[in-house]
Specification:
about 350 residues, mainly alpha, two-stranded antiparallel ribbon, 14 helices, 6 strands, about 50% helix, elongated
């Protein structure tokens, strides 16, 4: 009898020892040495047990059950984030769990240039893999989101701040988080443009609208304040702004790259500043910080006209006669030097 009890006891201790050794090995010895990188994606709302199973399938951990038990023991299972992570099969389970619960994940760049329209930005976002253009545009018209960031408009056109952003790419195709990040950055930049008290409401809307025109009219940093001054001079004199970019914006998807006289003569286009006085109905693109600053601190001068010289800058004129001469001179030069 004693022999049988001793035998059972030894068997139990052996089993416990084997289990203990297995657990110790699991926690301290990586699955592979040297390890290899594994890009691992976790979807929002995904069960932790499914995450553990997939980690085991991809060789990041050696045992899904022990990983679940470890996560439960450390109370970290519920803190795993959704996103895309760079893991290694050369890590211990503790290191893997730490990465999934504390790391922001793989940060990918989204570069949004100045002067893009809302629809163009939506395509950039989709092409970069941060969500669909459709979901981006839907969020850009979300009244609650616009209200949250004090956007005085029905859409985010003009208020999607151009910048290089870093995001963790999400499996979910909804790009609302990108729109929110861009609106948040716009509000942050407002403290740079107006350090005292940022503009609000109609004043902000008009400023952004004018800045968007300045953005489209010149790419030369030294000219922005001067171009802003020209438009403000014309507005003060109740002169038509007569700017091509607003007409092009109003044409929308139908614009084929060739601006015709018929387009300039069309009074039905609400953005036709050759026919309609004052500013257009709203922004025509997302202006950058430099254009916003130019509108805030325009150059004070007597210029009312400008024409492209063909080399990236413009010739400015104080009266119509000088402007006509400048147009004839530079247009002739362009025709003779195609």
């Amino acid at each position: 009898m004693r022999y049988m009890i001793l035998t059972v006891l030894l068997a139990v201790l052996a089993a416990a020892g084997t289990a203990g050794y297995h657990a110790w090995t699991f926690l301290t010895v990586p699955p592979e040495d040297p390890g290899r990188e594994v890009v691992f994606a976790i979807e929002p709302g995904q069960r932790f047990s499914d995450v553990a199973d997939r980690l085991a399938e991809q060789g990041v951990i050696a045992d899904a059950l022990l990983f679940r038990l470890y996560a439960k023991y450390t109370d970290l299972g519920g803190k795993v984030k959704a996103g895309e992570f760079a893991l290694s099969t050369g890590w211990t389970p503790g290191r893997v769990l730490e990465e999934l619960t504390t790391s922001p994940g793989i940060q990918r760049k989204l570069a949004v240039a100045e002067g893009l329209t809302m629809r163009q930005i939506a395509r950039v976002v989709e092409d970069a893999g941060f969500g669909t253009a459709e979901s981006f545009l839907r969020a850009a018209k979300d009244k609650e989101l616009l209200k949250k960031y004090g956007i005085p408009a029905d859409t985010a056109e003009g208020f999607l701040f151009p910048e290089t952003y870093l995001f963790t790419r999400r499996p979910d195709p909804d790009a609302a988080y990108v729109v929110e990040a861009m609106l948040k950055e716009f509000r942050r930049q407002m403290s740079v443009v107006w350090p005292g008290k940022p503009l609000e409401g109609e004043d902000l809307y008009r400023a952004v609208t004018l800045a968007s025109i300045v953005e489209k009219e010149t790419g030369a940093p030294v000219e922005r304040a001067r171009v802003a001054g020209v438009f403000l001079n014309r507005l003060a004199k109740n002169m038509l702004l007569q700017t091509d970019p607003t007409v092009i914006y109003g044409l929308g998807e139908s614009f084929d790259g060739n601006l015709r006289r018929a387009h300039l003569d069309d009074p039905k286009n609400p953005y036709n500043t050759y026919q309609r006085p004052g500013l257009p109905p709203g922004p025509i693109c997302s202006p950058g910080l430099a254009s916003l600053l130019a509108v805030t601190a325009p150059e004070i001068h007597d210029f009312y006209y400008f024409v492209s010289t063909g080399d990236g800058v413009h010739q400015f004129s104080k009266n119509l006669n000088d402007h006509i001469n400048a147009v004839n001179r530079y247009q002739k030069n362009r025709k003779s030097n195609p």
